[in-house]
């Protein structure tokens, strides 16, 4: 039975009946006819039109299969590149979108029996990157256009320049570390024997320091004077007793001269002893000065 012409009611009725996807094994790519069941496909295969088409294809079957395969690959890769670009996606997901078009080229007319073999072929050809996981086969398109290649080359150059700068910095840092280690080793060798702390040592020929807490001796004549020892002498001064503390009820006579003190030194065997007053304490001097001021004030008042 001849095919209905385009635009006729029979053609529209056939299109409405064939709405949606049908079984791939009941599709005849040579005649581009989709059958609804196995019986319909068997009847189509025995029809005169199908036999004539198969005779034409049989004359050069390899060329026809190669044409169908290249057309299927071109359409599939075009959908992959436009829809997903270089994104990694499942192969079956791309194929489901590809067969949604009813006028697409079916896989049973190509040299690939399964979708897995087709995905492996794309990976071997360098068209896409293919890997197998637990969830299935995944595919990612490789953009080989001149613009993409130029962009990729520029990115590679930039990465190489950055890597060279980093390598140069690492080399400089390594050289500085080596230089610091050498300097540290040299300093450690120079200071291998640490200086030994020595105690206080007196130099030979230095003057001996003498501390004396005794009273300073009296001056003597030149004939009998002896050389005094060199050094620092501290003379102790004996403070007299406080007259106010001796007897608080009796005030002492500050005008009374102090008892003479016999000198310890003499000017020879026949010399006379010199007498000198005993030194007064600071309190005694203050009391004497105060009494002297009072006496002068009383004398001025009496004269007036």
Question: How would you sum up this structure in a few lines?
Answer:
This protein has 304 residues and is mainly α.
Structural account:
The longest helix has 45 residues, at 146-190. Among the domains are: 1-59, no CATH class; 241-257 and 279-298, no CATH class. The strands form 4 sheets. A 3-stranded antiparallel sheet has the order 3-5-4. The protein has helices spanning 9-17, 38-45, 48-59, 61-83, 91-98, 115-125, 146-190, 243-246, 282-303, and strands at 27-28, 33-34, 89-90, 128-133, 136-141, 211-212, 232-233, 260-262, 275-277. The protein is mostly helical. Strand 1 (27-28) and strand 2 (33-34) form a beta hairpin. The termini are far apart. The relative contact order is 0.05. Belongs to the KIN17 family. InterPro entries: C2H2-Znf_KIN17, DNA/RNA-bd_Kin17_WH-like_dom, KIN17-like, KIN17_WH-like_sf, Znf_C2H2_sf. Residues 178-204, 242-304 are annotated as: Disordered.
Mean pLDDT: 75
User: Which shape, going by the Cα principal axes?
Assistant: rod-shaped
> Which structural class fits the helix and strand makeup?
mainly alpha
Largest sheet: 3 strands, antiparallel
Q: Proportion of β residues?
A: 5-15%
Strand order of the largest sheet: 3-5-4
Low-pLDDT stretches: 219-239, 263-271
Radius of gyration: 65 Å
Domain DNA/RNA-binding protein Kin17 WH-like: 52-178
Family: Belongs to the KIN17 family.
GO biological process, one term: DNA replication
Protein name: DNA/RNA-binding protein Kin17 WH-like domain-containing protein
């Amino acid at each position: 039975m001849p095919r209905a012409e385009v635009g006729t009611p029979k053609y529209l009725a056939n299109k409405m009946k064939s709405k949606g996807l049908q079984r791939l094994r009941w599709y005849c790519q040579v005649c581009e006819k989709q059958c609804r069941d196995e019986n319909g496909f068997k009847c189509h295969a025995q029809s005169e039109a199908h036999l004539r088409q198969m005779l034409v294809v049989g004359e050069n079957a390899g060329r026809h299969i190669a044409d169908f395969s290249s057309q299927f690959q071109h359409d599939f890769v075009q959908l992959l590149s436009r829809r997903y670009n270089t994104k990694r996606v499942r192969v079956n997901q791309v194929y489901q979108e590809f067969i949604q078009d009813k006028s697409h080229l079916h896989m049973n007319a190509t040299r690939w029996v399964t979708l897995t073999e087709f995905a492996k072929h794309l990976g071997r050809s360098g068209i896409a990157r293919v890997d197998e996981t637990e969830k299935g086969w995944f595919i990612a398109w490789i953009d080989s256009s001149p613009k993409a290649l130029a962009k990729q080359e520029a990115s590679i150059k930039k990465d190489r320049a950055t890597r060279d700068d980093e390598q140069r910095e690492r080399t400089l840092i390594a050289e500085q570390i080596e230089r610091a280690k050498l300097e540290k080793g040299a300093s450690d060798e120079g200071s291998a024997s640490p200086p030994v702390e020595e105690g206080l040592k007196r130099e030979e020929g230095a003057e001996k320091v003498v501390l004396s807490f005794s009273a300073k001796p009296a001056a003597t004549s030149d004939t009998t004077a002896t050389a005094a020892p060199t050094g620092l002498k501290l003379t102790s001064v004996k403070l007299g007793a406080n007259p106010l503390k001796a007897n608080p009820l009796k005030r002492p006579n500050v005008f009374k001269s102090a008892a003479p003190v016999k000198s310890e030194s003499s000017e020879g065997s026949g010399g006379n002893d010199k007498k000198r007053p005993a030194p007064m304490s600071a309190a005694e001097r203050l009391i004497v000065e105060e009494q002297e001021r009072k006496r002068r004030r009383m004398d001025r008042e009496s004269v007036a």
